Amino acid sequence: MRLPIPALVLAGLLPAAAAAQPPDSEALARRLLNSQGCKACHRIEAAGAVTGPNLEKIGSRLSREQLRTVLANPQKHHANGRIGDFSHLQPGEIDALTLFLSNRK
Ligand code: HEC
């Protein structure tokens, strides 16, 4: 059986690094980092505050699943419960952010 590449990535058969982020997804992630106020608390791509953890190399510390949980978790809070999380975003938006962050290494 011949599986398409994304299915192999999802199945964990290919390293996540093989999941190149399409330019539009990267642009979406950058837009969200601004529109969702992430940089009010986090440093990323040489911009932003350091109230929260620096995200410049977050992809080498957290897996994609962990990143997803930080952004949209069952308790629906972020920053140790001080702000709501990002569960209100579309699944595709969460995907774009998760992939973008996991590529920061
Ligand atoms: C009001 C400040 C604030 C905003 C806005 C905010 N965060 Fe955070 N974030 C924090 C704090 C504080 C923590 C650490 C506490 C925790 O883990 O809950 C954190 C944790 C994280 C972590 C885990 C970091 C680690 O080292 O474990 C990630 C990833 C993250 N935020 C991404 C984002 C993204 C992406 C956005 C925007 C969509 C965002 N944050 C918006 C304050 C914020």
How does this model look, in words?
The chain is mostly helical and 105 residues long. The protein has a single domain (22-102), classed as Orthogonal Bundle (Cytochrome Bc1 Complex, Chain D, domain 2). 37% of the residues lie in helices and 4% in strands. The chain has four helices and two strands. It has helices at 5-10, 23-35, 64-71, 91-102, and strands at residues 77-78, 83-84. It has a two-stranded antiparallel ribbon. Strand 1 and strand 2 (83-84) form a beta hairpin. Helix 3 (64-71) crosses helix 4. It is globular and about 50 Å long. The relative contact order is 0.16. The model has no long low-confidence stretch (mean pLDDT 89). Heme C is lined by residues 32, 36-38, 40-42, 51-53, 55, 58, 61-62, 67, 70-71, 78-80, 83, 86, 97, 101.
Low-confidence stretches: none
Gross morphology: globular
Radius of gyration: 14 Å
| Overall strand count | 2
Integer tally of domains: 1
Largest sheet: 2 strands, antiparallel
Bound ligands, named by name, code or SMILES: heme C
What is the chain-wise order of helices and strands?
Answer: HHHEEH
